[in-house]
Specification:
The structure holds 2 protein chains of 2 kinds. Chain A contains no helices and 11 strands. In chain A, the strands form 2 sheets. In chain A, strands 2, 4, 5, 9, 10 and 11 form a 6-stranded mixed beta sheet that branches. In chain A, strands 1-3-8-7-6 form a 5-stranded antiparallel beta sheet, with no helix packed on it. Chain A is mainly β. Chain B is built from 1 helix and 11 strands. In chain B, the strands form 2 sheets. In chain B, strands 2, 4, 5, 6, 9, 10 and 11 form a 7-stranded mixed beta sheet that branches. Chain B has a 4-stranded antiparallel beta sheet with strand order 1-3-8-7, with no helix packed on it. The longest helix of chain B has 4 residues. Chains A and B meet through strand 4, strand 5 and strand 10 of A and strand 5 and strand 10 of B.
């Protein structure tokens, strides 16, 4: 099966600075890489995703980059705000039998300091 | 509004009791999943179901059971065989069609159930 490693496990940044979270995956056949944001006591929410035919995708202050050769992808948050504080999970899709599934990283607790 | 609903939000279980966590979705999604989340850890897959009346074990299925009698519902039972059930449980669903849009690949999560053994 797929293995996804996520770093760092905790990240503190000053408000207005950038934050970067990195993930690596093991299955070279993976073709879909979503990122989820989980606020305290809630379920994860999809914030951005990228497919293997694209190297970078941006949505306002959030961007994701993918390096298929190196099998790693990263989440970039610019101009961080206190409401960005949450746990962020990366994931990678893999084929299990005839169905696609997601394997999740272990999460990054992002704290934006005012 | 379409969504996925988990209930209850908080659940307390005595030692030796079975408890059932509810998960209902009105998104017309084919696939449904149960994950367990422990503090500071990622999401671990318990069970998943791609279609009605069929389900598969995930990485940590021991001590859990599920059923999928309706497309909309995927309840999880935490049995007395689960020795350390205290955790946050998340249900998710996905449109399992082989589309190539993010809406079809992405998971939609419920808001979770926090189970505590007392």
């Amino acid at each position: 099966g797929e293995n996804v490693e996520q770093h760092p496990s905790t990240l503190s940044v000053q408000e207005g600075d950038s934050a970067v979270i990195k993930c690596t995956y093991s299955d070279s056949a993976s073709n879909y890489f979503p990122w989820y944001k989980q606020e305290l006591g809630k379920g994860p929410q999809l914030i951005i995703d990228i497919r293997s035919n694209v190297g970078e995708k941006k949505d306002q202050r959030i961007a994701v980059t993918l390096n298929k050769t190196a099998k790693h992808f990263s989440l970039h948050i610019t101009e961080t705000q206190p409401e960005d504080s949450a746990v962020y999970f990366c994931a990678a899709s893999f084929l299990s039998g005839s169905a696609r599934q997601l394997t999740f990283g272990s999460g990054t607790q992002l704290t934006v300091l005012p | 509004d379409g969504g996925i609903t988990q209930s209850p939000k908080y659940l307390f279980r005595k030692e030796g009791q079975n408890v059932t966590l509810s998960c209902e979705q009105n998104l017309n999604h084919d696939a449904m999943y149960w994950y367990r989340q422990d503090p500071g850890q990622g999401l671990r897959l318990i069970y998943y179901s791609q279609i009605v009346n069929d389900f598969q074990k995930g990485d940590i299925a021991e001590g859990y059971s599920v059923s999928r009698e309706k497309k909309e519902s995927f309840p999880l039972t935490v049995t007395s065989a689960q020795k350390n059930p205290t955790a946050f449980y998340l249900c998710a669903s996905r449109d399992a069609s082989y589309g190539y849009t993010s809406e079809r690949y992405g998971y939609t999560f419920g808001s979770g159930t926090r189970l505590t053994v007392v």
